[in-house]
Each structure stands twice: as structure tokens, then as C-alpha cells.
Design goal:
By secondary structure, the protein is an alpha/beta fold. It is built from 19 helices and 20 strands. The strands form 4 sheets. The chain has a 7-stranded parallel β-sheet, sandwiched between helices. A 7-stranded parallel β-sheet has the order 16-17-15-18-19-14-20, with helices on both faces. It has a 4-stranded mixed β-sheet with strand order 5-2-1-6.
Length: about 475
């Protein structure tokens, strides 16, 4: 018999006399970390590369995994007794009473309803689906029905300001004074002294707060939850011992079981709100066309390329003049606002920006990296929304997550990646419908440097991206393009 007791709002405790059963549960919740072979601590034999979600020594399991534990126990034939206070009674059918300047979409109301009834969930909803409105409605319901404070954790300072502005927009017709109710925290803002019941903060700032600071919160939303660093997420969510409302929002999970279980443990079971394909079909998001451009290099270049290491391959690509010239030509040939995404600032982002700026004529060209201030990024975003032919050269880290840009018509993937999250989040930058009603074009650039049976790393990454497009039912085509050295 396994007994499940409530430890606090963050964890439950398992008790079982059969140590063999506890070992099987521990194995069920043990995984190799993605990319563990490349981590120095693994290479130095300090760490075995595994993530252990269940602590067999003290029997502690993240609260959100109780349902998963029940399912696992049923398949294994274990007897499980769950303490009655683990699952609080669901409230009577809640009513959406908050007035808004517009009518929420059906799926947004359903997501809000699921959140307030279940109290714990990961709301999986793609970029452009209006997650900030769902969070606003959850926040307003919490303030109306609970007495504690409400914490909203986001990945970047830009998103702190954007969420705050969204709340102001939603409150225009209902008399909710945002400044009196919502406090913002990031670098330079006061973390401790505030009177408001709602706090929007970056996780980087939250992690610096003392443990007792978290006790004042009865509810938490982790926006863009997939971006939280695992150790920081574990620490923040573990210190929120009184937060019985735990909602994570994300555009996508990364497809690995360990990633889903870690997030489920902290927030609750995933709930799929809607999909990008559905939003495109019902005309909520812009139409999408993905062109996968495979740059084919000469036999001489491919044969000479050899068995280069991954970093050597990246160095070759970002410094390749012919490749960068192709990216600039492609970008300048597009009409409408364009976003060029890169990874390496000095080696790739700045050279692309300088080339585009030199050849763009009257077109406005903006450069964004982590060094660009929050206010300046916001100004660039606002200016671009008023433009019809601007170019933004931005790092994936700053513009692939959470930034709202309307009237973005073209996206160029100038840097290779195989991350499902980054791919889908980046595409989402261009799917918000603007006033022009134009479709969104995505140019996915990959590089065929293979020779005979030898496949280069980034070409394998391109194959993974195509699998993502197939899985999402996107309209995509593959074209080979000769590279003129």
C-alpha cells in the first residue's frame, strides 16, 4: 500500500513499507537530462546525467504528479491511498463576470474555466492565441475569490512590461486600476516593499528573493513556463508552499517526457487549449507558408569540409560570406516587415545587420540583442508595427519568446536549431494578424555539407525541423539552392 499525504502546496509525501515499490516509482521518475553527454559535470564524472523527480530518501514528489502516480500505480497493480485533502472540491460553476473591451474567444473562456476549476494545470496554447488575456481573467477571478497575493512569473523584462500594458488594455472598460493592483519587479525595481496584490516578475528576479517572501502568495502563473531553467523553476515553485493555484502557460512542450513531467509536477496536467493550425483555419492567425531552403555547396567544399565538430561547423556557416550574402539578398527581396533571427551576436548578428543596413536604402533596419534595453526593444516593436517595410535583425533569445509584433510578414531563420520550442515560438512572432491581412512567409535556411554517407550536424537539425512542420500540419515546401562561393 502506498499512501499519499499532503506536505504543502508544492509537494506530497509518499509512504510505503515496500522499498521495492518505492524503487520502481523512483525509476519511473528518473530520466537522462537532454544533452547530458555534453555537460561538463557529466564528462568529469561528477554527475551521472540523470534527473530524479522523486526523492526516494524522504518520499517527496511534486504535487502536480499525483494524477500521473495514480495512473502509474494502476498499470503496475499497486494499491494507492490518496489523502482526501490532496484534491480539494471543485467550485460551483464559475461565471466570467469581468467586463472587457471585446468578446473573448470560446477557447480562452474554456481555458480560464479549466484553470479556476482544476486550480493546477499547464495551459498549452500557441503564440497568438491570447495567453495574456487568459492570465488576466485568472488573476481577476483569484482577486475576487481569494485573500492572498497573486504572482505572475515571466522569462524576460520585456514581458513584464508587455503583460502590464496588456492588463491596462483589458481594464479600460471595467474600472480595474492596474497601477493600484499590480506591481512590477525586475532589475532595478523594488522586490520587497509593495502594497499591490499582484506581482509580475522575471524568474531571474524572483530567484533572488528570500524564502519567506514567497509565503504571501496563494496563486502563481508561470508564463512561457518552458523557458524556466530547471533549477530555478524547482527552487521558485518549491518555495511557493502556500500557492494552491498553480497555472503554467506555454506555446509548446519540447516533446520529451522529462520536460513534460517536470512542468506537470510544478503546475499540473497539460490542457491543450488550441493549436496553431486551428487558429489559422478559423482566421484568428495569419496564413502561413514555410519555405525550407537547403543551401547546397559544391562538391569541392563538401568534400573538403570533413568531419568537423559541431562548433567548427557553426563557425564555418556564420562566417561564410556567400551564405550571409544569400541571407541578405533573400531578406531585401521581401516586401513587408521582416524578422531575421540569429544566434551569435558578434559573429553573425552584427555582420548581417551591417550588410543589410548598408544596402537597405530608405528601409528602416533595427538590431536587437540581449544588450539592447527593454525600453529600446519596446520602441522598436512599436515602430515596426507602424511600418510596412522594416527589417529587424534579432537574436533568437530576445525575439523568439513572447514578443508581440503585428504586421510582421516575413521570418528568416538565419541560424540552425532543432528545438521544437524555439521553432514554433519563432514562427509565432509572425502569425498575429495586422491591418494588412498578408500571409506570413517563413524561410528556413539549412546547409547541405554532407559527403557520401557523412551527414553534417545542422543538416540533421533541418530534418528535425521538417518533422515539426509535418507534425503541426503546416504548409511547407523544400527547395534546393546552389551556393555560389
Amino acid at each position: 500500500m502506498i499512501e499519499v499525504h499532503k506536505r504543502n502546496e508544492a509537494f506530497v509525501m509518499l509512504e510505503c513499507d515496500d522499498q521495492g515499490i518505492l524503487m520502481e516509482i523512483a525509476d519511473h521518475y528518473t530520466f537522462y537530462a537532454p544533452g547530458y553527454k555534453f555537460v561538463p559535470s557529466f564528462r568529469n564524472k561528477i554527475w551521472d546525467g540523470k534527473i530524479r523527480i522523486f526523492n526516494r530518501v524522504n518520499g517527496i514528489l511534486p504535487y502536480g504528479l499525483v494524477n500521473d502516480l495514480i495512473r502509474f500505480s494502476e498499470t503496475q497493480g499497486y494499491k494507492l491511498k490518496v489523502n482526501e485533502n490532496i484534491f480539494p472540491p471543485e467550485p460551483d460553476t464559475p461565471h466570467l463576470e469581468t467586463q472587457l473591451p471585446f468578446q473573448p474567444r470560446d477557447y480562452q473562456i474554456q481555458a480560464w474555466h479549466h484553470g479556476v476549476v482544476k486550480r493546477r494545470a499547464i495551459l498549452v496554447s500557441p503564440t497568438g492565441s491570447g495567453k495574456s488575456l487568459i492570465i488576466y481573467l485568472l488573476m481577476r477571478y483569484f482577486l475576487a475569490t481569494e485573500e492572498d497575493k497573486f504572482l505572475i512569473v515571466v522569462p524576460t523584462t520585456s514581458l513584464v512590461e508587455q503583460m502590464y500594458k496588456d492588463f491596462q488594455d483589458y481594464s479600460k472598460v471595467n474600472g480595474f486600476p492596474v497601477s493600484e493592483n499590480v506591481h512590477r519587479i525586475y532589475s532595478g525595481k523594488d522586490k520587497i516593499m509593495f502594497e499591490q496584490r499582484v506581482v509580475i516578475t522575471t524568474w531571474q528576479s524572483a530567484i533572488l528573493c528570500p524564502p519567506d517572501w514567497f509565503s504571501q502568495f496563494g496563486g502563481v502563473v508561470g508564463d512561457e513556463a518552458h523557458t524556466f531553467k530547471a533549477k530555478s523553476l524547482n527552487k521558485i515553485m518549491g518555495m511557493l508552499e502556500n500557492a494552491s493555484y498553480r497555472i503554467g502557460t506555454t506555446g509548446t512542450l519540447d516533446g520529451t517526457k522529462v520536460h513534460e513531467l517536470v512542468l506537470t509536477g510544478h503546475f499540473g496536467d497539460p490542457y491543450h487549449v488550441t493549436s496553431t493550425k486551428e487558429l489559422i483555419e478559423n482566421d484568428t492567425l495569419a496564413q502561413l507558408k514555410v519555405s525550407c531552403l537547403v543551401l547546397k555547396y559544391s562538391d569541392e567544399v563538401r568534400k573538403a569540409f570533413g568531419k568537423k565538430k559541431y562548433q567548427e561547423e557553426i563557425e564555418f556557416l556564420v562566417t561564410n560570406e556567400a551564405r550571409n550574402r544569400f541571407i541578405c539578398n533573400l531578406t531585401l527581396d521581401q516586401t513587408g516587415n521582416s524578422l531575421v533571427l540569429y544566434n551569435l551576436v558578434a559573429k553573425h548578428g552584427k555582420p548581417l545587420f551591417e550588410q543589410l543596413q548598408a544596402r537597405a536604402g530608405d528601409r528602416k533596419v533595427f538590431f536587437v540583442s540581449g544588450a539592447v534595453s527593454v525600453d529600446q526593444r519596446e520602441r522598436i516593436r512599436e515602430i515596426t508595427e507602424q511600418e510596412t517595410n522594416a527589417i529587424i535583425v534579432a537574436s533568437m533569445g530576445t525575439f523568439s519568446t513572447g514578443i508581440n509584433i503585428r504586421n510582421l510578414n516575413n521570418i528568416v531563420f538565419a541560424a540552425p536549431t532543432k528545438s521544437q520550442i524555439r521553432v514554433l515560438q519563432s514562427i509565432g512572432r509572425g502569425l498575429r494578424k495586422g491591418n494588412q491581412g498578408k500571409p506570413t512567409k517563413v524561410y528556413d535556411i539549412s546547409d547541405n555539407l554532407s559527403w557520401k554517407r557523412r551527414k553534417n550536424y545542422t543538416m540533421n537539425h533541418a530534418v528535425e525541423r521538417v518533422k515539426i512542420y509535418e507534425k503541426q500540419n503546416f504548409d511547407f515546401s523544400i527547395f534546393e539552392v546552389e551556393v555560389n562561393q
